[in-house]
Amino acid sequence: MAHTWWGHVAKPGEWGDQWLSESLAEYMAAYAMGKLCKKQEFETQLRRWRSNSKFVKDRGWVYLANYPSGESVFEDRVGLLYNEGPPVLHALRQELGDDQFFTGLKSFLRSLEFRYAETQHFLGITDFVTKKDMWPFFDRFLLPTEWPAEGKSGGGR
Hints:
This protein is mainly alpha-helical. It has helices spanning 2-8, 18-36, 39-53, 73-96, 98-111, 119-130, 135-141, 150-153; strands at residues 10-12, 115-117.
């Protein structure tokens, strides 16, 4: 259900923007499982993302997951979109708090409903909701291969 929502309600505008639909769908599916079943479900998935992402640690950036090169193109893309992207979103949620994080997601969906959504829209809405410049956060965690610190993401690499 999460992929149906994120992939169609806010469609990725460019290849680089696919992290929005894929990483958000993955993150929100785990979040829902944590709310509907047990909180432990979400924590287990967070640990799984961290473990599974180790093989792409130095292979690229989440934003550029659809532009990999090398011998393991498919594995790198999957690792970046589905294992590195969700913890970046989790770090953002911890940085902003639930109110601002979910307000930002709602605003993103409302303003781009059934239109093409780009990363710059997501970043701009995040700035607007928080009333501060969040670009350094995204420059640090969305583009480079740095992993959010223990305190920001609930785990370490």
